[in-house]
Amino acid sequence: MKKGTDVLKEGFAKMTKGGVIMDVVNANEARIAEDAGAVAVMALEKVPADIRASGGVARMADPNKVQEILEAVSIPVMAKARIGHIAEAQILETLGVDMIDESEVLTPADEEYHINKKEFTIPFVCGARNLGEALRRIDEGAAMIRTKGEPGTGNIVEAVRHMRMVTSEIREIQAKNEEELRNFARFIEAPFPLVKEVAKTGKLPVVNFAAGGVATPADASLMMQLSSDGVFVGSGIFKSENPTEFAKAIVEATANYDKPEVLADISRGLGEAMKGVKISEIAENDRMQERGW
Amino acid sequence: MIKIGILNLQGAVSEHLDMTLKAIDKLDKKNEITVIGVRYADEVSECDGLIISGGESTVIGKLIKERQIDKAIKEKKIPIFGTCAGMVILSKKTDYDQDILEIMDIEVSRNSFGRQRNSFENEIKIFGDSYSGVFIRAPSVSKILNENNELEILSELDNNIIAVKQGNNIAMSFHPELTNDTRLHEYYLSEILKLNKSNRD
């Protein structure tokens, strides 16, 4: 019997395709997410908008909190570890979490190295702003990639930038020959074999989700139309006026992303979305997407 | 032309589509079988067979009900091949309060082997042949609800029932769509071909 193989890790991520993964901070929110049709929940201490507001060092959630959420729902539970924080990841694995998000939303623990994710039995998801970053994470063992976006802002602009960047780089390399691919791999600081594979298949070798700034059903549809395999929603649900309604609406929007008439119905009278932030209002060194490399 | 639908609501849909295309190719039945992704009741009711992929059974079940795909399936008695979440959806009963099709006489226990850290790959036997079994937070059959109803156990692993057939429906707790082996998809397609032939005769 084999455990922790690439097939099992990447396979787990494939089972979330077409779905919405929601940030939750307690058992009650986790149940609202499951009832609304989330494919998984992300257990954390505070949603990104609150992390941004409170400042200080953001760390892995309290094991009690993770436990509470694990026991509350039947769908998979993910949790965030700090970039490079091997011990937090080990603790989360021991608790029984199904996938770890090595996340820039938390304060990085290592400014040079990301976690060697191949050492773990459970899969990891990591953020990326471009193809080079995505392939470096995959090379370290990430079984799933997501855009970084700009977490906790309710502003979709950065997630769009990151998703478009990855797809346009993939389109670009499909026309390149072997020599050009080698150069390109050096230029984007990604392993050549992975660059070659992507050039051949025309897609990332793992599932690719949107994250960071999704606040409305239309945002979810937009990201799906830009070829996301699914959507993470952080603060967008539980920082909105009607979390239960927003959760349902974002699930429906993801499942009906190419049906504008359905989206119009879903979006009607939802109440106020989370309050957004303009990216230019955030000082450059407060931007979470700049964490990790 | 026989039309196989891959239920495209959530989960590992493209993997099943690829495998089914390869299986059609291997059987050399390109002139007899086509395969497409289907998302709505009217599309489903045009299918001669339907594959329900792995994914989150709570989500897939909810969407099936909302879109009244359950009615389309039951009205036309469409033969279904369900893997992992697909097995949960096909069952009459699960250990969780959720929307299911209630078609096969099985009770299913979800995440029966544990959480993701307990997901595993293991050799399994079906019809005397070996296959590579990929089990991801996999369910298993905890109880057969009606022994008289021609329910056939296709495979067991350490006393867990992991594959069953009843009438024209097949349920498996693992993911043949995550392997490179098309034999189980070929088996399903052959069953559909047989059924269509006997319906014509």
TrEMBL record, chain A:
Its EC number is 4.3.3.6. GO terms for molecular function: pyridoxal 5'-phosphate synthase (glutamine hydrolysing) activity. It comes from the Archaea. The keyword Lyase applies. D-ribose 5-phosphate binds at D23, G152, G213, G234, S235. Pathway: Cofactor biosynthesis; pyridoxal 5'-phosphate biosynthesis. Residues 7-211 form the PdxS/SNZ N-terminal domain. The active site is at K80. Keywords: Lyase, Pyridoxal phosphate, Schiff base. InterPro entries: Aldolase_TIM, PdxS/SNZ, PdxS/SNZ_N, RibuloseP-bd_barrel. It is an enzyme of class 4 (lyase). Pfam families: SOR_SNZ. GO terms for biological process: amino acid metabolic process; pyridoxal phosphate biosynthetic process; pyridoxine biosynthetic process. It catalyses: aldehydo-D-ribose 5-phosphate + D-glyceraldehyde 3-phosphate + L-glutamine = pyridoxal 5'-phosphate + L-glutamate + phosphate + 3 H2O + H(+). D-glyceraldehyde 3-phosphate binds at R164. The keyword Transport does not apply. SUPFAM superfamilies: Ribulose-phoshate binding barrel. Gene3D superfamilies: Aldolase class I (3.20.20.70). Catalyzes the formation of pyridoxal 5'-phosphate from ribose 5-phosphate (RBP), glyceraldehyde 3-phosphate (G3P) and ammonia. The ammonia is provided by the PdxT subunit. Can also use ribulose 5-phosphate and dihydroxyacetone phosphate as substrates, resulting from enzyme-catalyzed isomerization of RBP and G3P, respectively. Belongs to the PdxS/SNZ family. In the presence of PdxT, forms a dodecamer of heterodimers. This is Pyridoxal 5'-phosphate synthase subunit PdxS.
From TrEMBL, chain B:
The active site is at C84, H175, E177. GO terms for molecular function: glutaminase activity; pyridoxal 5'-phosphate synthase (glutamine hydrolysing) activity. InterPro entries: Class_I_gatase-like, PdxT/SNO. GO terms for biological process: L-glutamine catabolic process; pyridoxal phosphate biosynthetic process; pyridoxine metabolic process. Its EC number is 4.3.3.6, 3.5.1.2. It catalyses: L-glutamine + H2O = L-glutamate + NH4(+); aldehydo-D-ribose 5-phosphate + D-glyceraldehyde 3-phosphate + L-glutamine = pyridoxal 5'-phosphate + L-glutamate + phosphate + 3 H2O + H(+). Keywords: Glutamine amidotransferase, Hydrolase, Lyase, Pyridoxal phosphate. Pathway: Cofactor biosynthesis; pyridoxal 5'-phosphate biosynthesis. CDD domains: GATase1_PB (cd01749). GO terms for cellular component: cytosol; glutaminase complex. SUPFAM superfamilies: Class I glutamine amidotransferase-like. L-glutamine binds at G55, E56, S57, R110, I136, R137. Belongs to the glutaminase PdxT/SNO family. HAMAP family: PdxT. Catalyzes the hydrolysis of glutamine to glutamate and ammonia as part of the biosynthesis of pyridoxal 5'-phosphate. The resulting ammonia molecule is channeled to the active site of PdxS. NCBIfam families: PLP_synth_Pdx2. In the presence of PdxS, forms a dodecamer of heterodimers. Only shows activity in the heterodimer. This is Pyridoxal 5'-phosphate synthase subunit PdxT. It comes from Candidatus Methanobinarius endosymbioticus. The lineage of its organism: Archaea, Methanobacteriati, Methanobacteriota, Methanomada group, Methanobacteria.
